[in-house]
Design a protein that fits this description.
The structure is a single chain. By secondary structure, this protein is an alpha+beta fold. It contains 15 helices and 20 strands. It has a six-stranded antiparallel beta sheet with strand order 10-9-8-13-12-11. Strands 4-3-7-6-5 form a five-stranded antiparallel beta sheet, sandwiched between helices. Helix 12 crosses helix 14.
């Protein structure tokens, strides 16, 4: 009897027959296929789910052996859970692909005992796990795909780092090369390594002069197909097309792919350089997934071309200087050349320092890609600053041009210079002290040229104290306003040995130097820049032998003729 009272359902059965009927009903409506088996593998009872799954009537299955019905066999199959239950009286389970049920099933058997506790058979439960097996297969496939992608990505990063190391190494070595033969040897080495690292059939570096392209260096895989281009190409349109874009992809007649990056000389639009790589589709490399991306190949091209152009420019400059020694402007041109060499030394040295730092970072495991990126950004900034230095230094010698006067935050400018010199200061183990007046107004000046002045003064101070004992290497840089004269004053004091007394004026003359490797142009440049901006520069040897340089610059005034604050 089923009684429902006080919102709570309770089940009360008055006899064993009622209990049996109840459980038969539960057995029959169970969603999984169920069967009762006796000790001789015969089916005693099946539920509706099993009969429907087999497509037969329940009464037709009674008395038949389970292995005949489910597996079409004349004897129990291997690992039959019912057979194992008959041996040890325990529950067992096994997974089978059952054709008669049309899927993969998890078969479990539970022992059935009579009222005396004797084993009389088992309850056979078949649970369809086909869907779960399919899902498991899909998950396994997804896992394998993720693993394959991870391995591919790791390989890409490894290739990226490898090309980055090669690029930095070549840039450093080529920067030190003194002769054209040395540069060409390094370019040949680089082209060979690009071909090997990228798995290319061929890598060629071309120099373009007008419509003629000349192969300067080439690296080839052993057994690579013959080159469709000779050493010199009269019609170099296929190379010139690449100079206007990031790169050009084309298909060769033999089915291989050719990729070209090219750039033109900023000094001569008829001259240029290009890197050409070729690879076969049989290598399994999709065209859009080249090991060396277009940007990286373009950087290699830039490094190689700039080295050759720079050497050619230096050779031409040397020839020009020799020719002009007999002309009346030799002193002026010689001074300009010396100034450029002096002023470019610091950004080039900073570029080299950052490149070396990038090489060290690349040698770590794993490489610090973020710091490497910052080092390369610094290299770009120093290169850009070198260009500005060249432009503004040339303007100093053009009488028809005047300095670009603007409002400059001297404190910010000095901090920017100190940031550029940070590595050199740290390596030299120098104690640097700042003394900036917080009420310092803006000054009038040319930001690039004033940066040259600060760099020269700081470089001189670093050179002066570098030979002193570690605890005596001190530099004090100060900034303060002089409202009475409406000037802003920048001072740089060092604890070096200083200059000989009585040379306070002589040290600002061109070509006067106390350094063995000096050119005597730094302070001359500073004096010319400061005086053209309406300021003044001077030096003083202090009582303790210290040296202090003082630069005075006009304060910027606002519309009320008051000092213009930042």
């Amino acid at each position: 009897m089923l009684d429902v009272g006080d919102g709570v359902a309770s089940l009360e059965l008055e006899s064993a027959e009622a209990w049996a009927a109840f459980w038969r009903g539960i057995f029959d409506i169970h969603l999984d296929p169920l069967a009762l088996l006796d000790m001789r593998y015969r089916i005693v009872r099946v539920n509706h789910a099993l009969a429907d799954a087999l497509g037969r009537r329940a009464e037709d299955l009674i008395g038949k052996r389970c292995f005949e019905v489910f597996h079409g066999m004349s004897c129990p199959i291997a690992n039959c859970p019912h057979a194992r239950l008959l041996e040890d009286g325990c529950a067992h389970a096994e997974e089978f692909a059952i054709e008669s049920l049309g899927g993969i099933y998890w078969i479990s058997v539970t022992p059935v005992f009579n009222t005396e506790g004797e084993l009389i058979g088992s309850l056979h439960i078949a649970r369809n796990v086909s869907h779960y097996k399919a899902l498991e297969s899909e998950l396994r496939f997804a896992r394998d795909a993720v693993m394959a992608r991870s391995e591919e990505r790791a390989r890409e990063i490894k290739q990226h780092v490898r090309f980055g190391q090669l690029l930095v190494s070549l840039a450093l070595d080529i920067g030190r090369a003194k002769s054209e033969e040395g540069i060409l040897s390094l370019i040949q080495q680089g082209v060979t390594e690009i071909a090997a690292s990228g798995g290319y059939d061929r890598c060629v570096f071309w120099i373009l002069d007008g419509k003629v392209a000349r192969a300067v260096a080439r690296g080839e895989k052993k057994g690579a197909p013959s080159d469709p281009h000779p050493e010199d190409v009269t019609d170099s349109v296929w190379l010139l097309e690449a100079s206007a874009r990031l790169g050009v992809l084309s298909q060769l007649p033999d089915g291989r792919t050719r990729f070209v990056v090219a750039l033109m000389s900023p000094q001569n639009e008829r001259c240029g350089a290009a890197i050409q790589v070729e690879f076969s589709p049989t290598a399994g490399r999709p065209v859009e997934r080249m090991e060396a991306p277009p940007q990286r190949l373009r950087l290699f091209c830039q490094v190689f071309a700039n080295a050759l152009w720079r050497h050619a420019d230096l050779e031409e400059l040397h020839s020009l200087r020799s020719e002009l020694t007999h002309l009346d402007r030799v002193a002026r041109l010689g001074q300009l050349t010396a100034m450029l060499a002096h002023e470019l030394n610091q950004p080039l040295a900073a570029t080299l320092c950052n490149a070396q730092a990038a090489v060290r970072l690349l040698g770590r495991t794993p490489p610090d890609l973020k710091e490497i990126g910052l080092a390369l950004d610094d290299i770009v900034d120093n290169a850009r600053r070198a260009g500005d230095v060249v432009k503004r230094t040339r303007e100093l010698f053009k009488s028809e041009r005047t300095a670009v006067v603007q409002k400059v935050n001297l404190c910010v400018l000095v901090e920017r210079v100190l940031s550029l010199l940070h590595n050199e200061i740290a390596i030299s183990e120098i104690s640097l002290t700042r003394s900036f007046d917080p009420s310092m107004p803006l000054v009038l000046g040319d930001e690039v040229q004033l940066q040259q002045v600060v760099v020269n003064l700081m470089t001189n101070a670093l050179d002066a104290v570098r030979g002193k004992p570690r605890n005596e290497r001190k530099i004090l840089i100060g900034i303060q306003p002089d409202f009475s004269s409406r000037m802003g004053v920048l001072s740089v004091r060092d604890t070096g040995d200083g200059f000989v007394p009585g040379q306070e004026t002589l040290i600002f003359k061109p070509f006067h130097t106390t350094k063995a490797e000096g050119m005597g142009m730094g302070l001359a440049i500073c004096k010319q820049i400061v005086e053209r901006l309406g300021g003044a520069i001077g030096a003083e040897r202090l009582v303790k032998g210290e040296t202090e340089f003082r630069v005075s610059l006009p304060l910027a005034m606002d519309e009320n003729n008051e000092p213009h604050l930042p």
